[in-house]
Structures are given as structure tokens and as C-alpha cells.
Amino acid sequence: MSTVAQLDEEWSWLEDRPVFTTRGERGGNVTIVPPGAVLEPLTLRFWLGVASFVVSVALAVVGTGLVISGPSGASPPRGWWWLALAIPASGLALFSFAGIYVEGMPRMMRERPRNMLLLAGLLGGFTLGLAVLAALGGAEGLMPATAVSAVACAVTALYAARGIRRARTDVMRILRLRATGTAHTGVIAALPDRKTWSHGGDVPIRYRDDGDEAEHTVTVRVNTWAHEIPVPGTRVIVHRDEEGDLLVELDTAHPVEYYPHSRLYAQDTSGGGSM
After folding, report:
1. Residues ≥6 apart with Cβ < 8 Å to 200
2. What φ, ψ does residue 264 adopt, rounded to 5°?
3. How many other C-beta atoms can be found within 10 angstroms of the C-beta atom of residue 96?
4. CA-CA distances (angstroms) from residue 181 to 22, 127, 234, 239, 241?
5. CB count in 10 Å sphere of residue 82
6. Mind spelling out the 3-state secondary structure of 2-65?
7. Left, alpha or beta for 271 (phi > 0: left; psi -120 to 50: alpha)?
8. What is the pLDDT of residues 173-215, one digit of tens each?
9. Is the pLDDT of residue 49 over 80?
10. What is the pLDDT of residues 94-137, one digit of tens each?
């Protein structure tokens, strides 16, 4: 089995399939819940990984700063010894970054809050590292830089916390609709409008309610690449609860046919389409 196939099997978020949203979410705010997935808890082990990322970035900043400037009165050869701190710390930072990147998805199932958490950790590490350098007698300019970095870290952390909370709430909504919502078979009734295409577009979904035998049409947003736009007639499953909340997903029991003329939607000339 190839490495890509193994990754697809072990980390189903790598599978690139159209995702429908009903509340206008797009880009990094699209919630991706693969079939059979469960929402992993935000465990102490995960947060220790985040803390490790912050500390390792801080140590890398301190080590690099001391290599460049060195302690007061140190000779240049002595300053190079700080590479023994900077290099391992940078390696640990990369390792921690990868861990958060991979483990963050089953806990949030949205790219943007995970990326915001990584950015907050990076800014936190820079802030801590700059503060240590300033305390060791660094240049006076380090204090303003530390203050700016601290403010940026705080703002980013607030956005990350809010994004994580919203993402996990939406995941629980999707799982609830899958488990308890009434499922109806439907089809995509038309292609998205090329004039309003932007990383996806609105499409009408036509389905029949088995309870009243009436045919219904709802408009949802399909988030996909230009070369992976499902053609009209593509089968979908519409999950709906008593309050009218709904979830639209591709019917995995039927193969998906994509619109062959993707260049009509593509926003670049690379031939690969745009999302």
C-alpha cells in the first residue's frame, strides 16, 4: 500500500470530497466530519502538546537571540554555543507543531480554529522568548516588541478559543443529525452559478419527504474545488430534525460524477481548478 493510501485510510480528513454547508460556512470554517468519525476530547495530553510547542518556540528564540547578540561581555566564540539550545528547541517546535496539526483535526474538524491555535502558540512562544531576552539585558527595543507580540498572542488566542468552541458545537450538531435526524434521499438539482463562484457556490437540493410525500427544495452551499463539482442528479442524503435543522451530505452508496468542464469555474490557469 502506498504512503498516500495509508494516510487516506488512517486520516480520513485527507479525502477531498465536496462538503455542503447550510449556514454560509466556507473555506477554513467548513466543518468536515468523515463518515464514522467521533469527536475526540480536548485532553490534558493535547494541551500539554500545545504548551510544549510554546516553550520550545521560546527556547528557540532565546537560543537564536543569544547566538546573534551573546550575553553582555561574551566573546563571539562563546555565543555560538547557544546553538546547542536553539537547534534542538527548533526541532522540538517542529515536532510539536506537527502533533497539533494532526491531532487538532479530530478535536475540531475545522481548519481555521486549528490554525489559529497554532498561530497563538507561535506568538506565545515568541512573546516568552523575547521577554527572556529582554530580562537578560537585550536591546531596549525588545520590550516594545514583546508587548506587541503579547497583544497579538492574546487576540489570536481569543479567536482560537471562540473558533474551537463553535467548531465543536457544529460537529456535535452534525453527529446528532446523523444519529437522530430523519433521513431523506435527494439530488442536486443544478450546477452552481459561475458568476458567483468563489471557493464553492450555492446549489439547490431537491428531496421528497416520506412523511407527507411532498417534494422540497433547499439551497445549500457546496464547498469544493472547481474540478470536483458534482453534476446535477448527484445523489445526496438530507438529514432533518423536528425543528427544521438540516444536514446535506453526499450519498456514499452512489459514485459521484463531476462536472467535466471545470475551466468554466476555475479562477486560475494552472489547470487544477480552484476551491
Report:
1. 26, 192, 221, 222, 223, 224, 275
2. -70, -20
3. 23
4. 15, 47, 21, 5, 5
5. 20
6. CHHHHHHHHCHHHCCCCEEECCCCCHHHCCCCCCCCCCCCCCHHHHHHHHHHHHHHHHHHHHHH
7. left
8. 999 999 999 999 999 999 999 999 988 999 999 998 766 677 8
9. yes
10. 999 999 999 999 999 999 999 999 999 999 999 999 999 988 87
**Which amino acid is residue 46, in one-letter code?**
F
Given this model, what pLDDT does residue 23 score? 83
Query: Looking at residue 47, what is its pLDDT?
Result: 97
* C-beta separation of 168 from 175 below 8 A: no
Report the alpha-carbon distance of residue 28 to residue 105 in Å, rounded.
Answer: 12
Its sign, for the CA torsion 255, 259, 263, 265, is negative
Grid coordinates of 198: 468563489
Query: Within 10 A of 160 (CB to CB), how many other CB atoms are there?
Result: 21
Could you identify the residue written with the cell 523575547? Answer: 130
Q: What are phi and psi of 75, to 5 degrees?
A: -80, 155
The vertex-85 CA angle with 79 and 88, nearest 5°, equals 140
Quick one: which of 171, 170, 215, 222 has its CA closest to 200?
A: 222
Answer whether 67's CB lies under 8 Å from 79's CB: yes
Q: What is the pLDDT of residues 58-91, one digit of tens each?
A: 999 999 988 887 544 445 545 677 888 889 999 9
